[in-house]
Design goal:
Elements (H helix, E strand, L loop, with lengths): L10 E6 L5 E6 L4 E5 L4 E6 L4 E7 L3 E8 L2 E8 L4 E8 L3 E2 L5 E2 L7 E4 L4 E5 L4 E5 L5 E6 L3 E8 L2 E7 L7 E7 L6 E8 L3 E6 L3 E6 L4 E6 L3
Antiparallel strand pairs: 1-21, 2-3, 3-4, 4-5, 6-7, 7-8, 8-9, 8-10, 11-12, 12-13, 13-14, 15-16, 16-17, 17-18, 19-20, 20-21
């Protein structure tokens, strides 16, 4: 597990976010999507030119996001009570007002898609929840740290995690869900308060939200 000798992630780029408080990230095969906690909008980013090709208002705070077969699923915090609801966004068109899945226990911050199920992460309960089509929980994986970002890559989950969010002690954690007892390993230290995780086929992306920056880093061996 975590130790003081763990190597830091290898940063490749640290870029200014097109909007303040970048919160959620997703990669759809060509575009890096970012959701801002402050503006409550989604932005389609060209990673080569770092320009916004399209943007749209979200129905609430876009806490988490993932790509699903050419579309986006966005975990939004809605109403004055910050109710957590998963919404459908069609790139170039906007949000589908008829689609909504309430998060279990009204709790959840980030999303991934494992090819079959949407997976909601709960930060403080330290859980990954795989959902069925009706939003019912089909599997629960408990992890040793709070989860502040997640993405599914080649059969395993990669998480941005921490035990104390007010510090700079964050980690890249890998969860292999295939064994009956999932295999969990902390791979590298993230030396800042990370939010969200996306994978572009080669490298990872995360947000240094309080610095209004989006960071690209190497996938560890």
């Amino acid at each position: 597990m975590c130790n003081n000798r763990m190597k830091n992630i290898q940063e490749l780029q640290r870029l200014t976010s097109p909007a303040p408080k970048p919160q959620s990230l997703a990669w759809d095969g060509a575009t890096l999507w970012m959701g801002s906690r402050e503006t409550k909008r989604l932005y389609a980013l060209n990673p080569a030119t770092w320009t916004v090709g399209w943007e749209t208002a979200a129905p609430g705070t876009p806490w988490g996001m993932t790509a699903v077969t050419g579309e986006l699923r966005v975990l939004c915090g809605e109403t004055a009570d910050d109710h957590r609801i998963i919404r459908r966004c069609l790139p170039g068109k906007g949000f589908d007002g008829q689609f909504g899945i309430h998060c279990p226990d009204d709790c959840g911050s980030h999303l991934s898609f494992d090819g079959r199920s949407l997976v909601v992460s709960q930060w403080y309960p330290k859980k990954l929840l795989a959902l069925g089509d009706d939003g019912q929980v089909e599997r629960v994986i408990t992890v040793p740290h709070g989860i502040c970002g997640q993405v599914f890559v080649s059969g395993v989950f990669y998480l941005a995690t921490t035990d104390a969010e007010e510090t700079t002690d964050y980690w890249l954690t890998r969860v292999d869900p295939r064994p009956a007892t999932p295999q969990i390993d902390d791979l590298a230290r993230i030396p800042f308060a990370a939010r969200a995780l996306a994978f572009d086929g080669k490298n990872f992306w995360t947000n240094h939200r309080e610095q209004n920056q989006i960071v690209c880093f190497v996938r560890p061996d």
